[in-house]
Model the fold of this input.
Amino acid sequence: SQQGEEDPQALSIQEGENATMNCSYKTSINNLQWYRQNSGRGLVHLILIRSNEREKHSGRLRVTLDTSKKSSSLLITASRAADTASYFCATAGYGQNFVFGPGTRLSVLP
Amino acid sequence: DAGVIQSPRHEVTEMGQEVTLRCKPISGHDYLFWYRQTMMRGLELLIYFNNNVPIDDSGMPEDRFSAKMPNASFSTLKIQPSEPRDSAVYFCASSLPSRKLGHLYTGELFFGEGSRLTVL
Done:
């Protein structure tokens, strides 16, 4: 299975701190994506990084990808209470079957 | 665009009843996915379609589950008969992969708000 596995399962930080979440996967990928899910809502796409990219930025988000280690990290800088959510990595092979990891629950305390 | 639209948002039914969940993908997207989310198993891909044709249904748990996509703007996921273990949130998502120089690049998924199913 190419399923991603996020680490940690849960993370609690103070507002203004940085939050780092990691994702590991098992097989070759086309790209890796990160999604956010607020409680009771659908998933929202945050950022996509292709297999030939090593780092990508979007606002306060920074994603890295290490294909040799089959791992990725998501960094949220200067976190806000509104960042409280579950974060999922999804790996996509060369078909269209996205596989999601179990997610990291992030709590940002005011 | 209104995004991916799912209905109903909530469904409570009794064991043995038929359940039909509906999805309208984003106009122009040619891939449609059905996912199921539970605390125990996380997000599971049930089936996905390309241009209304089922491509991979290996995630469909058993014959009680069926999915159709009669046209580009509508899909259904049916459970008959329903069981308590089917209780979950069912998500529909659509995507439009990019195509460059003959290669297909996986795009982002756009999710609906989900249908929360409770089977008593």
